[in-house]
Amino acid sequence: MVHDRPDGRNPNQLRPLVCARGLLHRADGSARWSQDNTIVIAAVYGPKAISGRRENPARAVLEVIWKPKMGMAGPSEREAEFILKRTLEYIVLTAMHPNTAISVIIQVVSDDGGALSCAMNAACSALVDAGIPLKGLIAVTCAVDKDGVIYLDPINKEEKEFHGHACLVFPGKPMSSFAPAGLALDSEPIERGIVTSVTKGILSAEDYLNCLERSRAASVKIAEFARSSLEKAQRGVELVVAS
Amino acid sequence: MEVETAQEDLKPAPGQLASSPFINKIVAPGDIVLDLAQLSIPTLRLGGGLRQDQDLVIATKAGRLKYIKPNKIWVEGSQKRYIPSLEDVVIGFVVDRRSESFTVDIGGPVHGSLSIFLFEGATRRNIPNLQAGSVLYMRVVKAHRDMTPELSCVDATGKASGFGHLKNGYVFQCSTGLARALLSRPTCPVLEALGKSLSFEIAVGLNGRVWVNAASVSTIILVSNAIMNAEFLSAAQQQLMVQKLLQRVQES
């Protein structure tokens, strides 16, 4: 039985996406990612010098700071920081900048559900804006499951009524006109993989796999949007260089 | 002046660089730009923003893919943070003086080191008198991710050639893309437009720093503002902007 969604979307529909890059003057890279009423700003500083016991002579140290919209950061913010750090460590080529630190600061501007996935998309865009060398891009979606029906990109109200909630990070599909045999793990193409999966509540195995398939299809749209936003930003930067 | 850093040499099989569909297009990190198995060039030089993964060349930064015949390829993008690379000209500030070298801030992840002997006519008795905060125009002679970058105030033959202490003037920050544009040939439109009516001295560092000096303070301010504003403008817009600025100054 499919319930009507409070904002009139159908279960597979994502909220409108907006991405602005390079909005902060002092940060090396920044991006604001909004999914309708959920807005998150990510700022990236680095690679910068680091000293003391935190430094790693083989790779850059990634640190994430999550600032909630109101109040002090607590355990749930620490958890979000940890998840983000592990996810971003997958895409950042940390070995290219040993003995440095790369800081990612997430500021939640408004949260109407799906803040973690919004933050991860924003962090990826901010890293690209800062010119940090990356292995690839990521696209993040989340979904809730209610009575066996999967709703993508839930708003706050839907998240509160969920039975199971999943936030899923997929690697962005790389562009290439060749059909390379490379870039596959165990003969499965890289875009069929998954980077991070964060689940809450109760999800049956079948529902989880269902979530995975729907989210993967949605993540393709998010990856396309992120790419076109990246190209537009690059063209803006290039007006001087081209002349 | 085209900026590129050679990082790797490798030997693939048949094909031509120019045939890659990504040449002169914007690439994102993770894009596979070349399949080495299909190239016929004996050695390929990969510049900034590219890495090699077995048989594939993959972009690590967002930017436009450029190439020079027959075998140099790189990604050109613009950043705020500078990563030191060999043979770049940079503007730095002296931070500290040690027994055999100066510690210089070049805007990268770590400070660079400038030996006291790498100045024209430098000897043990004739050490340049540089205080903390002095502005220097240098070139990068050693840059590796695991080591402190090393700088020099002489060119390869031992002459100063414009490197060294920049006295007076004003230094401001810009992005690496704008710095490259200011140094490229033909001359950047904003510099050409300014040069027609004003006389000033300028030094541009690829680390995103620009030093401007002129006889009067108002000229320095005008030139600096014009350059900072030129970042996202096309050639025609830059000329228009400079005209407007000059008009406003002449009226007051």
Automatic annotation (TrEMBL), chain A:
Which parts of the sequence belong to the Exoribonuclease phosphorolytic domain?
Answer: 13-133
The GO annotation for biological process reads:
nuclear mRNA surveillance; poly(A)-dependent snoRNA 3'-end processing; rRNA catabolic process; rRNA processing; U4 snRNA 3'-end processing
Any one GO MF term held by the record is: RNA binding
Keyword Nucleus in record: yes
Organism of origin: Ceratopteris richardii (Triangle waterfern)
This chain's protein is named Exoribonuclease phosphorolytic domain-containing protein
| Cellular location(s) | Nucleus
Homology family:
Belongs to the RNase PH family.
Naming one, the record's GO cellular component terms include: nuclear exosome (RNase complex)
Q: Which UniProt keywords apply?
A: Exosome, Nucleus, rRNA processing
TrEMBL record, chain B:
One function term, GO molecular function aspect: RNA binding
Mind telling me which CDD domains this protein's record contains?
Answer: KH-I_Rrp40, S1_Rrp40
Entry's localization field: Cytoplasm; Nucleus, Nucleolus
One of the GO biological process terms: CUT catabolic process
- Could you tell me which Pfam families the record lists for this protein? KH_6, Rrp40_N, RRP40_S1
Exosome complex exonuclease Rrp40 N-terminal domain location is: 44-81
- Respond yes or no to whether keyword RNA-binding is given for this record: yes
Q: Which domain of life is it from?
A: Eukaryota
Gene Ontology terms: cellular component:
cytoplasmic exosome (RNase complex); nuclear exosome (RNase complex); nucleolus
Statement: the UniProt record of this protein carries the keyword Cytoplasm: yes
Q: Where is the K Homology domain?
A: 169-217
InterPro entries in the record = Exosome_RNA_bind1/RRP40/RRP4 (IPR026699), KH_dom_type_1 (IPR004088), KH_dom_type_1_sf (IPR036612), NA-bd_OB-fold (IPR012340), RRP40_KH-I (IPR049469), Rrp40_N_euk (IPR041054), Rrp40_S1 (IPR037319)
Coiled-coil segments on the chain, per record: none
Keywords, sorted A to Z:
Cytoplasm, Exosome, Nucleus, RNA-binding, rRNA processing
Q: What family is it from? A: Belongs to the RRP40 family.
Q: What is this protein called?
A: Ribosomal RNA-processing protein 40
Organism listed in the record: Ceratopteris richardii
